[in-house]
Structure prediction request, 79 residues.
Amino acid sequence: MNLIEPILADAANVAARLMQAAQPGEVLVSDQVWRAASQHFAFDPRQPVPMKGKTELMPSWAVDNRQARQSLRLQEPSF
Prediction:
């Protein structure tokens, strides 16, 4: 087992729990993702989610698709 496997397993576990806690059509993200993406996307805070194997509740955020932030449009490559 290498050192990266436990990190990836934890991230996959968190993602699975957030998917289970989300309402239909809702995308929940962890506090870590919220901090990394909050400058680019709008989020609404949600109730913390219990995580199997963790003592503390996981803060969660829902992506708010009603609040459009300035988007970035990439130039299509021309070949």
About this structure: Strands lie at 28-30, 43-49, 58-63. The longest strand covers residues 43-49. The mean pLDDT is 83.
